[in-house]
Design goal:
The protein has 1 helix and 9 strands. The strands form 3 sheets. The protein has a 4-stranded antiparallel beta sheet with strand order 1-3-6-5. A 3-stranded antiparallel beta sheet has the order 4-7-8, with no helix packed on it. A two-stranded parallel ribbon has the order 2-9. Strand 7 (86-92) and strand 8 form a beta hairpin. It has 108 residues and is mainly β. 4% of the residues lie in helices and 38% in strands.
Length: 108
């Protein structure tokens, strides 16, 4: 599964002390449909934060014509710490298949 933390951000800068949210996109590809992921099963970061709005947002995040899933997580619930260089998202599809995706981050 392909994830994009802070779409349009490169590098993906995260302040672990922030009281804001981190947007994370699950991207559809030719072989994976992001809209099949059960948003209630998704966990993000070392502490397994759950989606802050308790729902997903389906949109074409990267402009490739495929629908992606956008989720938001409270920064302080993720467990991301200073010095971390990647963060991962895990979950299950609606058919029960386990999925994992990681993206590089830069803590500030």
């Amino acid at each position: 599964m392909t994830v994009d933390i802070k779409p349009d951000g490169d590098p993906n800068r995260i302040n672990p002390a922030s009281k804001g949210v981190i947007p994370v996109a699950i991207l559809s590809t030719d072989t994976f449909d992001a809209t099949t992921v059960d948003p209630l099963s998704v966990k993000f970061g070392p502490d397994g934060a759950t989606e802050t709005h308790n729902k997903d947002h389906i949109e074409d995040v990267n402009g490739d014509g495929k629908l992606d899933m956008m989720l938001h997580f409270q920064t302080q619930e993720t467990g991301i710490a200073s010095g971390d260089t990647q963060a991962c998202l895990t979950g299950k599809t609606t058919s029960g298949l386990g999925v994992t995706g990681c993206d590089l981050i830069q803590t500030v």
